[in-house]
Design brief:
single chain; 205 residues; mainly beta; 2 helices; globular
């Protein structure tokens, strides 16, 4: 019983010395570093899918100087380019706007004439009881003459007449009319009689 107690004390002393960092033979023991559990870090990578949206296409603006240049329209030179027909007659105005003219079909005859103020005007004949000298005309026979009329003769029924450009002849119904910047000449194609009228001059032939 006594021996057992001694043994136990001795063992306890050894254990105590060991716990204090010494060894049984008195040498210093190296400090014990307890192994720490290695933390395993699992990196979760979240893949972000980026969808690139293309920018809307912007149409290219091309400036073509040659294509954008507006070319001047040449003056018409025939009836193909300008239409004057209304109700089987043909109406036009002079380039200076002083005369309204026409190649018209009237009851019993066809004639070409122009209305407007001209000077000089011969005396009014006795057989003209209405307006005199406010224009000139040429009919199926005879020379051109001054107009004796009770009202407008060469005005279109529908709207206003187009300008007959200078140098562009209008030939219809056996007559041809042509304008310059200041006058109008109409001729019967068969007889070659006619007139030329302007604001400050006139002529019959």
């Amino acid at each position: 019983m006594r021996v057992r107690v001694v043994t136990t004390v001795t063992a306890s002393a050894v254990l105590l010395l060991t716990g204090c960092g010494g060894s049984a033979d008195g040498s210093a023991a190296s400090p014990t570093v307890e192994a720490q559990p290695t933390a395993t870090t699992t990196a979760t990578s979240t893949a972000v899918t980026t969808t690139e949206v293309p920018a809307p296409a912007v149409p290219e603006t091309t400036t073509d100087t040659a294509a954008s240049t507006t070319e001047p329209v040449p003056a018409p030179t025939s009836l193909v380019d300008v239409q004057f027909e209304q109700n089987e007659s043909y109406y036009f105005t002079s380039p200076d706007g002083q005369f309204t003219c026409g190649i018209v079909q009237l009851p019993g005859r066809t004639e070409a004439g122009c209305e407007g103020i001209t000077d000089p005007v011969p005396p009014q004949p006795d057989d003209c009881m209405v307006n005199w000298g406010h224009g000139m005309r040429v009919v199926d026979s005879g020379e051109g003459e001054f107009l004796c009329s009770g009202g407008p003769v060469y005005l279109p029924v529908e709207g206003t007449a187009s300008v007959l450009p200078a140098g562009a002849p209008l030939s219809q119904l056996g007559y041809t009319c042509v304008t310059t910047a200041v006058d109008v000449t109409c001729v019967n194609d068969g007889t070659r009689h006619g007139f030329t009228i302007a604001s400050s001059s006139n002529e019959t032939f």
